Amino acid sequence: MIMTLPRVGRTIALYKPYGVLPCFTDPEGRPTLGAYLDVPCVYPAGRLDLDSEGLLLLTSNGRLAHRITDPRHHLPKVYLVQVERVPDAAALAQLESGVVIAGVRTRPAQAKLLPTPPSLPERSTPIRFRKHVPTAWLELTLREGMNRQVRRMTAAVGHPTLRLVRVAIGPIMLGELQPGCWRELTAQEMADITRS
Fold this sequence. Notes:
Layout: E1 11-16, E2 43-44, E3 53-59, H1 62-69, E4 77-84, H2 89-97, E5 100-101, E6 104-105, E7 110-113, E8 135-142, H3 149-156, E9 161-169, E10 172-173, E11 182-184, H4 187-195
Parallel strand pairs: 3-9
Antiparallel strand pairs: 1-3, 1-11, 2-3, 4-8, 4-9, 5-6, 7-8, 9-10
């Protein structure tokens, strides 16, 4: 069934930088989206933790926000994940079949070991470097959004996350956006995400 969502208000794709909260105010004075975006009445559709970076969608359309965040819609979210050590086939299979987090098994995911590091902007705070611990990059595709799920999944299979970048939400791609930059979704992207 195709759900039709009228184009109401604005929907924005933002590259949320590392170390920025996915909200507009913080009583503790930490960096927020307000330093990068001055568009009234748009709110994040989902989360991206302080220590994660990448694609964040913000919208003034409540129905669209619900569609993006509700796991019943099975909207895939794609992450590039730098982990400690190189996962073997068994670790990847475990990620794909689901791992138990706080007594709940995660839904099946797609996990792929990348042959070379992806081309990403430098992070404002470099990851910790350990001379004798190699790192690897994974592409993980999830269709749910438990709290800190990617980090908890990779830790559960023995490969703690060092850097986490979301590069897609359904058909919407991070593309060439740089940290702190944003753009409005095109009419085609709006049509695509309402059909996903």
